[in-house]
Each structure stands twice: as structure tokens, then as C-alpha cells.
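Q: Here's a chain of 295 amino acids. Please give me its 3D structure as C-alpha cells.
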Amino acid sequence: MSPVRKAVIPAAGLGTRFLPVTKSLPKEMLPVVDKPSIQYVVEEAVAAGLTDILIITGRSKRAVEDHFDRNFELEHYLEAQGRVEMLRDVQASSEMADIHYVRQRDPLGLGHAVSVAKQHVGDEPFVVLLADDIMVDNSELLLSMLDVHDRYGRSVLALLEVDQNEISSYGCVDPRSRDGQLIEVQGIVEKPPAEDAPSNLAVFGRYVFTPDIFDALARITPGRGGELQLTDAIALLLQDQTVYGRTFTHGRHDIGQKLGFLRANIELSLARDDLAEQTRALIADIVAKYDIPIG
């Protein structure tokens, strides 16, 4: 069985939830503290040993490519100014991985975006990481999913238990069996009404796929929202082979939503030695200014 070497990051979305800023700036470049959000996703992949990374882009996404490229003028300026630490941070983004790009010409959904990766991935297992979610867990979840794949040679989904009234916002799995954090999946449905959901296990934006997913993607037709749904391809894959899920409880920041984006900036600032004290003071000042009750 081939080891997993490649990661795919779909980043062709229009970012409509963050308009008007995303009219000119890709949502993946919105800063979380002092790094664009997509850099957190790339760093997660690299920390898990995945250094061959394909980013699926679309129109107006050139800034993503520029970020992971060298900027010799900026580097020369920082070096001349003796700003060694800042220079190191700038160079790190262009040296952390072997990053490739391919355009998704038509916005036909997540399933279509993943299918665009077929030529690059070839006949190998691979990881898909959605850029709307960043994980701050030292790649613990992704490494555990890769371990499940190594043991069973099958696709693995990241699963999060959510309130039943939230399940209609997610893909949802029907579990056949459960052994601790390992789930054997027997079914999957995209954004079911709460009363029809087979469980409260939501599919979250981390996947380890066997290359068989490409055959399934080639067979699906437009589903919910008129798009090619990755969930529908996973349902077809389940007809031919076992699919596993790995549950998790912490580390996720949903930056595809405005409040989640704000929360990520606050929490990650509080986790930084150089920003924690000032961030606490800022929060206390805001609480006092707006007379926000505590508790």
C-alpha cells in the first residue's frame, strides 16, 4: 500500500460570506492574527508529513500563489534592515512545501474541485483539507486519520459530534459501528433535516481518500444546490468498499463564518506569548466599555 504523500486544498470558492472584502481579496488570504488562513492549512499538512500540495484555485486567486512564492525585493529590504526574524517568517511560506496549482474553471461544487486534482494525484491515496476550517492541534487529527488509513487501506473522514439542530448544515454519516474514536460508516447524506439525520456525526473538512474516489466522482450527477457534491461520491464509494470515520473534539476553528473568524483571531492571539497579555487587556477594555455582563 502506497504511503500518503499528497494533499489537496480546494480554494476556488467566491467567499460570498465575507463580501465586500472578498471582491478583491481571496477569502483564503484573510489574516488570522498575522498569517493568511490558508497558511495554517498548509502548515498542518506539512506537520503531518505531506509536502506535495496541490491548491485548487479559481479566478482572482493570484494572491494565494504570490504568498507562497519568493518576494526577492521584500527579502532584500528586510535583510538590509537587519530584520532577521521577520525575514525568516517571510521566507518560510515559500520553503515549507512543494506547492502546485490548478484552476477549477467552473464553480461546480466541492466534488468537482476534488476531481480536478486527478491528474496530479494519479493512482495514489491523498488528503483533502478544506480551507474554511483551520485545525490548531499540532496535526493530531490528521495524523490519526493517516494512521487509520495505514491500518485498513481505506478512506477516512473527520467527524465531529454536533447538536442535532445543527446537523442540517453539514454532511452527516450513518455509523455501522463505533470503537472509541473509530467509526465504520455505512451511509452518508448531505445536510439532512434534523428530524431525518441518521446521527449527530457531522463530516468536517478533513479527508483521507483512496484514489477510487475519482471513479466515484466521475459517476455523480448534480445534487443539492445543483452542484457536484463530494458527499454523493463518498456514498457511491461506500457501495464498493468500507469507509471509516475518526471523531475529534478540539482544535477546530470555522473561519468560513464571520463569528468563527473573529473567534479564531481572539483565541489564537490568547495562545501567543507575545500577544496574550495585550489581548486579555483588550477584551477587558471592551467588556467594560460596553458594560457586557460576565457569567
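Q: Can you summarize the key feature?
A: The mean pLDDT is 93.
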